[in-house]
């Protein structure tokens, strides 16, 4: 079967499965092994690897392929190392074995969210370097921790660091979602995420979930939360575990040269794009908040959305085609001519 015949496997798939076996799963992600994995990749690819410790124990490797024109802003390829917990009893295969079945489906936590993208970045860069390409713009790859629990010890801190500002990022790519149709989804903004923690002192009782809803007026919703606490009586308070108040939108028209380049590649490859606002939150929000246009894109079409789900999986042909797509995207994005503010 395919899982027992590694000699016939594409080396990019083998590398992908190797990364999937690193247990960067909450609540205790093995970040040390993941960082060492990316250091090794940098060495093999001839890239520099800067390790930025944003807070004790949280290290972000930054791999860099220098461009030929250092006066231009750079391209950032971001992905996160951490994955959400699993309930092994609901999986057909060990979620950290990276089992590949006879049809070519790879089962593992992180196949879609988002270890596939991390390896696609690396393999696209590898291919371009092997072919002898050089581009005007520098390409940086960041592999961040903590995204699944808010990014507070990851990208939120990184964008404030002088090491990040020295990267001079002009445009970024980050994660998207699979699309079960022939189309590819691309995300240009995100919802304003609010996580609220209520505290009620007294005898324990039944705790029910709030029904998901979108408040049109955020201020009015906050007053409603306060009124609920007041109505419940003394000893009931709430605090925001996460409260995002800086929504930004990356323009998706040809006036934005980054979108124009991205869209042109997709048209040339006959890829149908479906632009959307991301239904939850990713690290893109921290990038956009500091003025960096970003698109969320995981090139997975004809694929059910299985992030955070049992039996998360990805077909190897979809994964490999993603490398082809990123190879074309990087060639064009890293060659975008100087913008007015770069002259």
Automatic annotation (TrEMBL):
<dbReference type="GO" id="GO:0005737">
    <property type="term" value="C:cytoplasm"/>
</dbReference>
<feature type="binding site">
    <location>
        <position position="113"/>
    </location>
    <ligand>
        <name>Zn(2+) 1</name>
    </ligand>
</feature>
<keyword id="KW-0378">Hydrolase</keyword>
<feature type="active site" description="Proton acceptor">
    <location>
        <position position="147"/>
    </location>
</feature>
<dbReference type="InterPro" id="IPR052083">
    <property type="entry name" value="Aminoacylase-1_M20A"/>
</dbReference>
<feature type="binding site">
    <location>
        <position position="113"/>
    </location>
    <ligand>
        <name>Zn(2+) 2</name>
    </ligand>
</feature>
<dbReference type="InterPro" id="IPR001261">
    <property type="entry name" value="ArgE/DapE_CS"/>
</dbReference>
<dbReference type="GO" id="GO:0046872">
    <property type="term" value="F:metal ion binding"/>
</dbReference>
<dbReference type="GO" id="GO:0006520">
    <property type="term" value="P:amino acid metabolic process"/>
</dbReference>
<feature type="binding site">
    <location>
        <position position="80"/>
    </location>
    <ligand>
        <name>Zn(2+) 1</name>
    </ligand>
</feature>
<feature type="binding site">
    <location>
        <position position="175"/>
    </location>
    <ligand>
        <name>Zn(2+) 1</name>
    </ligand>
</feature>
<feature type="binding site">
    <location>
        <position position="308"/>
    </location>
    <ligand>
        <name>Zn(2+) 2</name>
    </ligand>
</feature>
<keyword id="KW-0862">Zinc</keyword>
<keyword id="KW-0963">Cytoplasm</keyword>
<feature type="binding site">
    <location>
        <position position="148"/>
    </location>
    <ligand>
        <name>Zn(2+) 2</name>
    </ligand>
</feature>
<dbReference type="Pfam" id="PF01546">
    <property type="entry name" value="Peptidase_M20"/>
</dbReference>
<feature type="active site">
    <location>
        <position position="82"/>
    </location>
</feature>
<dbReference type="InterPro" id="IPR002933">
    <property type="entry name" value="Peptidase_M20"/>
</dbReference>
<keyword id="KW-0479">Metal-binding</keyword>
<protein>
    <recommendedName>
        <fullName>N-acyl-aliphatic-L-amino acid amidohydrolase</fullName>
        <ecNumber>3.5.1.14</ecNumber>
    </recommendedName>
</protein>
<dbReference type="GO" id="GO:0004046">
    <property type="term" value="F:aminoacylase activity"/>
</dbReference>
<dbReference type="InterPro" id="IPR010159">
    <property type="entry name" value="N-acyl_aa_amidohydrolase"/>
</dbReference>
